[in-house]
Amino acid sequence: GDEEATTNDKATTEEATTLKVASLIPPMTEILELVEPQLEADGIDLEIVVLGDNVQPNTALAADEVDANFFQHKPYMEEFNRNNDANLVPIEEIYFANYGVYAKNAASIEELPEGATIAIANDISNVDRSLALLAQHNVITLGEKTDVYYTEADVIDNPKNFVFKTVDLLMLARMYDDADAVVMTPAYAAPLGLTPKSDALLTEGIDNDFAITLVAREDNQDDAAIQALAEAMTSEEVRQFLEENYDETAIPAF
Amino acid sequence: MPDVLVQYDTEIIQAIGETFIMVGASVVAAIVVGLPLGTLLYMTHPQKPMENKLLYQFCNTLVNIIRSFPFLLLVVFCIPLTRLIVGTAIGTTAAIVPLAIIAIAHYARLVEQSLLDVPKGVVEAAQAMGASRWQIMTKFVFVDARSSLILSLTTSIVSFISYSTIMGVVGGGGIGDFAIRYGYQQFKTDLMMYMILIMIILVQCIQLAGTFLARTLDKR
Amino acid sequence: MPDVLVQYDTEIIQAIGETFIMVGASVVAAIVVGLPLGTLLYMTHPQKPMENKLLYQFCNTLVNIIRSFPFLLLVVFCIPLTRLIVGTAIGTTAAIVPLAIIAIAHYARLVEQSLLDVPKGVVEAAQAMGASRWQIMTKFVFVDARSSLILSLTTSIVSFISYSTIMGVVGGGGIGDFAIRYGYQQFKTDLMMYMILIMIILVQCIQLAGTFLARTLDKR
Amino acid sequence: MIVLENVHKAFGKEVAIHDVSLHIPEGAIYGIMGPSGAGKSTILRMMNLLEKPDSGHVIVGGRQLTTATTLQLNAARKSIGMIFQHFHLVANKTVYDNIAVALSLADVPKKEHATRVAEVLAYVGLEAHAKKYPAMLSGGQKQRVAIARALVTKPRVLLCDEPTSALDSNTTSGILQVLAQIHRDFGMTIVLVSHEVAVIKSMCTHVAILEQGAIYKTLDITPTGITASDNTAESFVRALQEDHV
Amino acid sequence: MIVLENVHKAFGKEVAIHDVSLHIPEGAIYGIMGPSGAGKSTILRMMNLLEKPDSGHVIVGGRQLTTATTLQLNAARKSIGMIFQHFHLVANKTVYDNIAVALSLADVPKKEHATRVAEVLAYVGLEAHAKKYPAMLSGGQKQRVAIARALVTKPRVLLCDEPTSALDSNTTSGILQVLAQIHRDFGMTIVLVSHEVAVIKSMCTHVAILEQGAIYKTLDITPTGITASDNTAESFVRALQEDHV
Ligand SMILES: Nc1ncnc2c1ncn2[C@@H]1O[C@H](COP(=O)(O)OP(=O)(O)OP(=O)(O)O)[C@@H](O)[C@H]1O
Ligand SMILES: Nc1ncnc2c1ncn2[C@@H]1O[C@H](COP(=O)(O)OP(=O)(O)OP(=O)(O)O)[C@@H](O)[C@H]1O
Ligand SMILES: [Mg+2]
Ligand SMILES: [Mg+2]
After folding, report:
1. Domain range spanning residue D124?
2. B144 to E74: CB separation less than 8 angstroms, yes or no
3. Packing angle of the helix pair B142-164, B92-116 (nearest 10 deg)
4. Is the per-residue pLDDT at E73 higher than 90?
5. N or C: which end of chain B has fewer CB within 10 A?
6. Best substitution site from D131, D137, D170, D231 to test ligand 2's pocket, by max atoms within 8 Å of Cβ?
7. Kind and range of the H or E element at B190?
């Protein structure tokens, strides 16, 4: 959990401001689209900038090209700050993407054969997250964290000799047929008709740091427009939307 | 028209427009900078009218360096330059900068090669008439190589279209990115197929036009 | 050696190996399939030894379709084929299939163009001697176009290296992907720079070798 | 042996050959003359169907080339040698390879190549140039390579398009003597396009004179024979100082 | 006017020109003869520095070409016309454009091009072919375009490498008459490489005979003049039926 939206002194904005928010894929973009009309009523023109890469939304935010972004969890953001002398700050946790393990030919993790292939995302924070998920359920054991992230090198015990294959995030779902098991976010599992609730062998749940968070910069975090956006994104409307459309997949974090 | 196209019609039209802007700008860059750069590569070759080892190696290395970058990283590397030129590093306009740079390097290489196929005699005829280097190129070598230059440009344009599909990274948009975002990431397979169809038609038209023009202009 | 390289030495060596495998396989595919396909494109052109509108349009469209796909989507489309051929759709071996397909289309186009620059007289001399189509190509046209074919292959190989950097999506690995994953996504800028340096050196070597070979073999 | 029946050829609107019929007897040395642009090259190129007539027939050695399949045409062409007006050497092959390739197309075993190439190179006086590439040769040397390439397979028919245009009279008579010798030994049919009256007169038994794509006249003549060649600079001095050329 | 001083040129190990000195007086028609491969083309190509001598000097119109800068060399070349042995036409330019480009390089105003190109095309008898591309021309027609291109700028020096090799004797004498006429009108210096004794004899006042890259002899001769041309097929019949050629 993280700090709640702080109290706001200035309640109104006089003139229409444009708020640029970088994002990647649904449901992130859908949430932003959902709150757009509400912000418009507040005199804020929300412009959604869809990018296609996991680094550029932060780069753009740090460079003042956008005012906020909405695609990442806090650890990922912190890592960016550390490496780029950036001052990004989390504004509001919006939902948990319930990471899970899926397998086509196994109903439980125990059924996976010795030496089975497990596909995981190839970017380092997701490698960390995938391994942590498996460790959380005692499928593997991880050693001391030597770096910021766990890597495959940190696996000290792997009783069933699982083989990890790293592929692009976008490719994970396609590996469902290929690998014995896939560790992925619900957003990628959904198109296969898989939900964390009924299909995942293991899930992350909500007790973690990985809530998808609205992020802004230190210098604009208190801006009325940002706060208005944070407020809109934590509205009942959004909660309802997530619960109706992304049950167990995107669990509201507010 | 299929429902899915109707549903997304404004986005699709916008994506097509973005592709045209990005590819159009690349073509302009290829012609305005890539053609001269490729010509310089040719001219400074050993035994060519402006033989110059140093200049050749400089241009050659420059082109190689640009072509060595994984395209994604080139886009990232260009960000400061892009910001300097167009004031922002995201969006279709911003995507033009890295695309133009790769377009220049790509076409320059093909230009160099096309010109190397021009028979020696053509250059000799020009030199014997006292043609300046500029005249040797414009009045003789380009004329002889014109169909080859056009085919190279055609091949390059098709590559530019392909490169433009990666520009989603910096929000460049375009049909390819649209296909990837909606079709692939969101599993709207039918939408993706239509987008790919549009790209095939576009490429086919460009190739046909290029081949036709090259053939018409080839009197050798 | 810089610390960061020592730290990742096994991974880097593996990545270099993966790049060599992927690019090497693409080169083989380009030569074994792309060269004949490009030759067929040339042969079936109007006024060329095997003039055949239908066959030409078929091959031409095939090449265009492959080149129309956003590369990422081509990789995805190839998955069933890849699985059929190499048994899996992930890993370096699996990455070879889409790379080979694009390599074939890419080189075929450049081969077609190189051959179109061969003077008519060479083909006529071959025909007058009663050469079969195979002999016309192998004993005459390829010989005349050899330096151009080598330069085209060089240009293509550099492109293949560039394409291989995208193969991280299916776990293909390679230097480019290494640079993107460790260098770019994990902000290890120095590591990324070293990887790019390796790629620049690789590209520079290939280009120098290609240019040298082409120049040595060019007796025109 | 070679029969052209009402062959006709137009390039666009321009008619290059108007309904020409020609009969060239087996073993003849047949000259074709005519002003520049008359259609000599076009008609010669029809005899191995490099130029496809718009109408009419071409029959060589009893074979209808105009209706032949590609395979039949290729077979026929293997026994028809050709010397092109513009030589058409392969720039990236050495002199040796330019000649040897004709042998390998004619299915002459590889082990015979060296001796046969050496033989024709001696005929045309280019023994010393076997390893050169065409770009390193003088105009006359290129032409002689083209001649050697056509002769090396000892074809049944030899089509020569201005074979000595780039050669001085001494070299020309040397080449003509070789042609005459080969003709005596093998009795092939030779068609000789030339603008040099002296060449035609010395060699040919029949001449056709072309004008604007049509046959103006055919003549039977008695070849005068070739005067001995003397390939020295002194011969130029002598020729220049003679009263009549 | 044209002075070669101890020029020397080797291609690899092969020496093509051995230390040749030659003095060609202003306004002369200077013939260069010699057997095939003697070095005629090489020496001619040195006169506008297309072939750079390994040592020695080339002086044309008082200008040292061997030490000239690119700019000076280009300026000098503008007054030196050249007819190449292999024509070197630009394949993608029409006959008209191949000739007109020489005018535009010589800075002749564009509005004069049409009349001047028409004039030289009439000289060489190709009025009807202005819009054709080189690939559509016969061998002799190509050669005549090359001649027209060299003549159109009325250069002070004209270097001709076998300018009539592809032409029958009638067309040749037509061309030679044009050359003689232009020479009378403008008094340019003409260097004429030819293997045809008749051509040299009819035109030249001086002749150098080359052998193996060296000058064997230089002669002063009295040109016999050019016999009237008669470009008909009948002239071939007559020539064939004459006793002497
Ligand atoms: N591809 C072509 N397109 C148009 N016209 C052509 C083509 N080829 C030849 N011609 C024309 O056909 C005529 C005959 O040409 P051809 O080459 O047979 O002449 P030729 O008798 O060999 O002349 P030369 O002695 O000059 O070689 C010429 O007027 C030429 O311009
Ligand atoms: N680039 C080259 N490389 C090697 N040798 C060459 C080169 N150019 C010319 N030669 C040689 O130099 C000699 C002279 O050639 P050149 O072309 O001057 O002869 P030429 O007198 O013009 O003969 P022709 O009458 O046959 O045209 C020839 O033996 C030729 O083989
Ligand atoms: Mg001809
Ligand atoms: Mg010569």
Report:
1. 91-154
2. no
3. 150
4. yes
5. N
6. D137
7. helix B189-217
